[in-house]
Amino acid sequence: MPMWRTNRAFYLAQEIHGRQVVVAPPRPLLWDARLALRNLAAGDPRGFLASRARFLVVHRDLAAEEDAIPDVFLPPRTDILPRFRQVFRRFGGAMGDRLEREWGRPDYADVHLRAWDLDRVRKARRAFPAPPAPAAAPRDVPGHPPGTL
Q1: What's the pLDDT tens digit per position in 57-112?
Q2: Residue 16 backbone dihedrals phi, psi, to 5 degrees
Q3: Measuring CA to CA, which residue among 35, 58, 32 is closest to residue 45?
Q4: Is residue 2 over pLDDT 50?
């Protein structure tokens, strides 16, 4: 889907809030750091925290937000494709739930979005870092003493 079909809400947010918007696509294909896109972050908690963004806004239904923006072109653009409508809705719901489990309640939430103050989350994570992952248990391999591999 061409990017200009689904990013008008982000552009309007930049205009309204006077801040650049950093976007995070729901699919990892565009998360590759080699792309080096200035306003793109990986769409997972680690990517959000590593980004230059100050706030994280998770849209509950981005397709509905896009559809609500009046068209200025003739003929008007077609509706957001159903496939992308599902991707946006599923990602927004699942990611918002995941972040609530990992970071706690959002700093702001309504029927359209959930938002976290990333500076607050970064500071809290520095103060209370996640425990290290447990070491893998040694494997027993026939012909080798137990616990040596």
Answers
A1: 998 887 777 777 777 666 666 666 666 777 777 777 888 999 999 999 999 999 98
A2: -70, -45
A3: 58
A4: no
User: Over 90: is that where the pLDDT of 123 sits?
Assistant: yes
> For the chain, how many helices (H) and strands (E)?
5, 3
E-assigned strand segments in 84-133? 108-109, 113-117
In terms of residue numbers, what domain contains 63?
Answer: 3-127
Q: How many domains does the chain have?
A: 1
* Higher per-residue pLDDT: 144 or 103: 103
Please, what sign has the CA dihedral across residues 36, 94, 19, 66?
positive
**Residue 16 belongs to a domain:** yes
- Any domain includes 132: no
Q: Is 138 part of a structural domain of the chain?
A: no
- 89 in a structural domain: yes
**DSSP class of residue 143?**
T
What is the CB neighbour count within 10 angstroms for residue 85?
18
Q: Phi/psi class of residue 148: alpha, beta or left (left: φ > 0; alpha: ψ in -120 to 50)? A: alpha
Tokens encoding 68: 């609500």
**Coil, strand or helix: which one is 12?**
helix
Q: What are the start-end ranges of the E strands in the chain?
A: 55-59, 108-109, 113-117
